Amino acid sequence: MPRKRQLGDAADRKRASELLKQKQQDWQKERLIAVRLGLNPDKSLDEIAEVVGRDRSCIQRWFDRFKQGGFKALLSRGNSGGRPSGCVDEVQAFLKAGLEAGKWNTAGQAKSALEKQFNQTFRYHTVWHWVKKCSGVLRRPRPLHKKQDKEQKNAYQRSFLGHLRKLELPAGKPVKVWFADESRYGLLPVIRRVWTLKGLRPHSPWQTKYQWSYCYGALDVVEGDSVFMQSPSVNHQWTHQFLKQICKEYPAHEHVVVWDGAGFHSKDSNHWIVPDGVHILTLPPYCPELNPIEKLWDLIQDHTANKIWDTIEKLDGVVSKLLENWWSNPRRVLRLVGRGYHRLSVNAS
């Protein structure tokens, strides 16, 4: 009678099940399933190989790794016989901390920081390889105002549902919650990154023309409706017209408008620019990321950037056509909005 396989004990079976419930990569799940099956001595290698979809030799290699180094060895991939990278745990931890904090603009700066920290010399290409190994990528940071209060921002997200419930809304009437904002665009070109061939430096046409148009916009974070109004300026009068347009397009609803504290906005629902049936909530200062419509303006500029526009009227027409792709497609708006604090709070209210 063949000797039964001794791969582990009940504690190992429990640990394998716990790890499977955690977020793992597909190849790690595959190995965990194989080991969990292998911890049952009555399961043959052939049976496990058939379930996992691998051959016997592969399953046996995984079992050997598990016997030698436990779950840590099982869930890690080696260097395929190549030379070790030399990125020891201390170096890796230092690089990851710097990447999370966004400390370095270039790999050269990361190299200098490493040399200062560990008092030794590193090759540039080695550091570049380590940065990539730590999942480092080169990204353009989003501007963050130095006056932003993080605690106030987080508190607003937690209490947004409470703000909605405090509003004195008439019973029995449907309510729409809009996140509103304005965007400026004009004949002064916007420069964005472009795909190009390695070794080439792309050029973008430029002109110095200071002529602007504006667009008011509001997104319904529950049903995906949207309202837009292009204007030559932004002020109380134009804001009043925009709010009236929202009411005109959805006359059967009460409207909650959430926006920032710009001077041409109102923080008070009783202000003269606010029509009947509109209720105002104000975002905390210097927190544009709390307003989902900010992402839409950025997407619009993806299409108008790196181009020369001869007249503001021509650019107005292009922007109008781009906006049509949003107000005619509520599902697209909802994908943009996502399932953030705003949508969850409105649904709960």
3D architecture notes:
This protein has three domains: 10-74; 89-133, no CATH class; 152-193 and 203-348, 2-Layer Sandwich (Nucleotidyltransferase, domain 5), CATH 3.30.420.10. The chain has helices spanning 10-21, 26-38, 45-52, 56-74, 89-101, 107-118, 124-133, 150-166, 236-249, 293-304, 312-327, 330-337, 341-348, and strands at 175-186, 212-220, 226-231, 254-259, 278-282. The radius of gyration is 29 Å and the shape is extended. The longest helix has 19 residues, at 56-74. It has 13 helices and five strands. A hairpin with a 5-residue loop joins strand 2 (212-220) and strand 3. The protein has a five-stranded mixed sheet with strand order 3-2-1-4-5, with helices on both faces. The N and C termini lie far apart (67 Å). By secondary structure, it is an alpha/beta fold.
Task: Describe the structure concisely.
The chain is an alpha/beta fold.
Shape: extended
Number of strands: 5
Amino- and carboxy-terminal Cα gap = 67 Å
**Range of strand content:** 5-15%
Which key phrases capture this entry?
single chain; 349 residues; alpha/beta; Nucleotidyltransferase, domain 5; 3 domains; five-stranded mixed sheet; 46% helix; extended
Layout: helices, strands, pairs:
Blueprint: H1 10-21, H2 26-38, H3 45-52, H4 56-74, H5 89-101, H6 107-118, H7 124-133, H8 150-166, E1 175-186, E2 212-220, E3 226-231, H9 236-249, E4 254-259, E5 278-282, H10 293-304, H11 312-327, H12 330-337, H13 341-348
Parallel strand pairs: 1-4, 4-5
Antiparallel strand pairs: 1-2, 2-3
Helix pairs in contact: 1-2, 2-3, 2-4, 3-4, 6-7, 8-13
